[in-house]
């Protein structure tokens, strides 16, 4: 049985401004670093064997907080990057409507498809199962990548809730099936002002 912990990176300024980040390499802001610090406190006494992360700074830095307290190395993989959002990266909804009109989402603006991003995530998870049988693996990535990958892995679960920054979702792989043990948990942020996006 392999256990996988899926974590979304901490908050960034573009999250706060509701700008599409995509694969633009936006760093954590001060609040995001506080979230990552609290997450690392939570993980300090939990049993994990490996940590993987997207190579984008906001995910890698979030993973590094955990790695530092657990004295582990972070391994990066480009498949864990956020959805590539083409021409809309860096824009707010208002800016997209102003530039392309109300039907902007129907235009070909170079955005990666849901199928493509889910395939990246599932491919990585399959490699984890093969590489780390019967071990516990943390994966720090991004909202769209995690949401779409989870829809593929556990379609039988209710996972419609928006994935919070630094939330933890835990899955176990047993008898060729994924089971969700915990979804979108941010108990480590209790008491912190609700600025997550």
From TrEMBL:
One of its GO terms (molecular function) is phosphoglycerate mutase activity. The keyword Hydrolase applies. It comes from the Bacteria. Keywords: Hydrolase, Isomerase. Signal peptide: none annotated. InterPro entries: His_Pase_superF_clade-1, His_PPase_superfam, Phosphoglycerate_Mutase. Its EC number is 5.4.2.12. This is Phosphoglycerate mutase. It comes from Paenibacillus qinlingensis. The lineage of its organism: Bacteria, Bacillati, Bacillota, Bacilli, Bacillales.
């Amino acid at each position: 049985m392999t256990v996988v912990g899926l974590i979304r990176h901490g908050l960034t300024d573009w999250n706060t401004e509701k700008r599409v980040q995509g694969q633009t390499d936006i760093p954590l802001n001060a609040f995001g670093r506080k979230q990552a610090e609290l997450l690392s406190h939570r993980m300090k006494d939990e049993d994990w064997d490996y940590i993987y992360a997207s190579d984008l700074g906001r995910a890698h830095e979030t993973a590094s907080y955990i790695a530092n307290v657990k004295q582990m190395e972070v391994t990066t993989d480009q498949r864990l990057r956020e959805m590539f959002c083409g021409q809309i990266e860096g824009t707010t909804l208002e800016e997209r409507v102003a530039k392309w009109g109300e039907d902007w989402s129907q235009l070909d603006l170079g955005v990666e498809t849901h199928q493509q991003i889910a395939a990246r995530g599932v491919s990585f998870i399959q490699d984890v199962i093969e590489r780390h049988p019967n071990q516990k693996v943390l994966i720090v990535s991004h909202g769209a990548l995690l949401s779409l990958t989870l829809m593929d892995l556990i379609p039988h679960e209710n996972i419609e809730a928006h994935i919070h920054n630094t939330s933890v979702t835990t899955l176990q792989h047993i008898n060729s099936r994924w089971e969700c043990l915990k979804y979108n948990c941010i108990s480590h942020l209790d008491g912190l002002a609700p600025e997550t996006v």
